[in-house]
Request: fold
Amino acid sequence: MDWFLNPTSVADKLIVMVIAIALFVAIMGLILWLIDRPNVPSWLVVVGFLGPVTIALIVGLLYPALGTVWRSFQVSQTAIGPDGRPVVNPNTGQKTSELAFSLTNYQTVFTDPNFQKVLINTVWWVVLVPVLATFFGLIYAVLVDRTRGEKLAKALVFLPMAISMVGASIIWKFMYEYRQADVPQIGLLNQILVWLGLNPYQFIITEPWNTFFLIAVMIWIQAGFAMTVLSAAIKSVPDDIVEAAQIDGATGFKLFRKVTVPTIRPAVVVVLTTIAMGSLKAFDIVRTMTGGNFGTSIVANEFYTQSFRQGEGGKGIGAALAVILFVIIIPVILYNVRQMRLSEEMR
Amino acid sequence: MSMSGSAVELPVTTDATPEEKVSSRQLKRQLRLQDAKTKLSSPWASGIAILLAILWTIPTFGLFVTSFRPPVDISTSGWWTFFTNPGITFENYQNAWSGNGGLSAFFLNSFVITLPAVLIPISLALLAAYAFAWIDFKGRSVLFVAVFALQIVPIQVTLIPLQTIFVSLGLQNSFWPVWISHTIFGLPLAIFLLHNFMKEVPASIVEAARVDGAGHVKIFFVVLLPLLVPAIAAFAIFQFLWVWNDLLVAIVFAPSPNLKPITAAIAELSGTRGNQWELLSAGAFIAIVVPLAVFLGLQRYFVRGLLAGGVKG
Reply:
């Protein structure tokens, strides 16, 4: 069975992949065949269509989410037996540990200076990325709207969205690359500093500004998303509104501020909240560029480090960080849903 | 889109613009276009647009140029000197692919991970979306809202317990947990998106098939699936980009060097050999080229999905 779980050769890997797909097709085919026979009760048809998904979501999302919430309130401690002495595992001779209810995980996250730094960084990410990405996306969408070469112009800004965050991190790490002042620079930004007569700067290492240079990467990625959605919104601003405003003498920036912006406001809100959630969960950039060192860690990255790099001891803190992530997202989503409702009512 | 006429340049990257039907509307558009032209003839506006376009392109372009330069050149001079002192080599790609970078194996892993992780959630979501759209049953809307709401669960919240489940099944550190978790994480968005598209199919078509005696399974395969190809494409691109570009799920569930996808391999290279730019630049582009091709080829569907509310973080 080793090749089944840990295939090494190219052929084995492809075979396992084909088996996985075939297994899925066979199971689903069987289910559909069963419910397609005559005289099958209708509830069974519903179960056939929805059952697999429901099970997957309950076992794979709902139960784990609740499990994480529960785990975040547990700490691992040495088990104490009824005699008041630590319980020793007779086989290994070591003290056994057990989980106990505690608020320690949250206490640590909110009071430890290192974790406080992580939280503050996260706030910067969640505020700056949506605002600036939307700002640049909106400006660009307006500027290239209905110009010659609009398609190409948009594709250029859109492309970073197809690139993985890992790829984007490599691209920007190279932009930020630092060499000492007496040798030629190979990173463009430091070369520009040198051309301006300044000293090269360690963009990725120097606190506290390095966090903002990582944030710039996320802005670079997300602006394309903002641009696409806002561009579509701008194009759907009704012609008659624009014409009426033009007759009233509104032109250029005034037209944009008084007519375009209010009309596309719902789209702006959706873009802002979507990017905010994306930046909250983005872990790849920090992981690839600094690994969370040099005071750049954010909740999403710290979650990974604590949960999967610190053994059993970090699991509780990891769970607490995941729950914090979740709790921050909820009001953003509620606001988003409310805005969508409002804009639907207005129509 | 092609109906819009030659005089007006329509936004080709978005499908959101309603197709022109009335010629007077076209005329209006032309007038507006002239307006826009005068508006944008401002040198400031075009200047800023060009500046932004350059800012957004230069970083990728720089690494791209670097990936074709000999290692000695890369480490002793900036990529911008390439234009005055050109030197081209393909060895970086050779090295990254099969030499000391050895990315070909990781590229294969990415492929092996991605194909099932795109096919399976789409199939499951199509079935569920059909049930939500076209089968009447008690509790339908409650269940649909529940699925919709699950979109907000960040995957981080699920990872530790999921890992425990996979360990107890003996599946840990293989492709299986990666496939399964990508499938699960993709489902809520997929069901929501595909349900929206499925609802748009006219009820008369479905009714007609029902009158002809077709059961749900037959209606699903014969009537609805062919109509949904654009929607399926839209979500397939999302899921493809998401899975191919994913780092977190892969390094949590398949950390073994033998199973790593290319994103994880590149991220690791960046940590261990961060100064070998000849390797990193070529490696990054090997990782980027597939999603880029898919993206450029199917951009139209991608944008449609994006505007239909399909966004995943």
Notes: The CA atoms of residues 18 and 181 of chain A lie 55 Å apart. Strands of chain A lie at 74-78, 97-101. Chain A has a mean pLDDT of 88. Chain A has two domains: 2-78, 107-346.
